[in-house]
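ok, trying the design again with the full structure, not the truncated one.
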């Protein structure tokens, strides 16, 4: 339910902005690649959570920022998603400390 918790936080933040500034037309949300959320579940959760609120008609633009990794020894850089492709589901669960 990580996606629902994030969507709830976004909703509350936008509602707070609405209370301070009034009308909001568009909100840009950037999600870090290390969050490893299911984007469709997040979008669904956000849609459901804002239903019936003052921000129901706000246009949410959601993007995922790619996480870059760098070796401190040689300086080699790569995308975090490439690391995940090399690991099986069991290995990813075993090292769940990587969000």
């Amino acid at each position: 339910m990580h996606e629902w918790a994030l969507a709830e936080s976004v909703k509350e933040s936008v509602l707070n902005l609405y209370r301070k500034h009034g009308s909001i037309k568009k909100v840009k949300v950037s999600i870090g690649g290390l969050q490893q959320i299911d984007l469709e579940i997040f979008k669904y959760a956000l849609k459901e959570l804002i239903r019936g609120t003052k921000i129901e008609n706000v246009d949410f633009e959601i993007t995922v920022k790619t996480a870059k990794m760098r070796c401190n020894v040689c300086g080699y850089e790569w995308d975090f998603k490439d690391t995940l492709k090399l690991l099986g589901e069991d290995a990813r669960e075993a090292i769940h400390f990587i969000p």
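Keeping the full-length input from now on. The CA atoms of residues 23 and 36 lie 31 Å apart.
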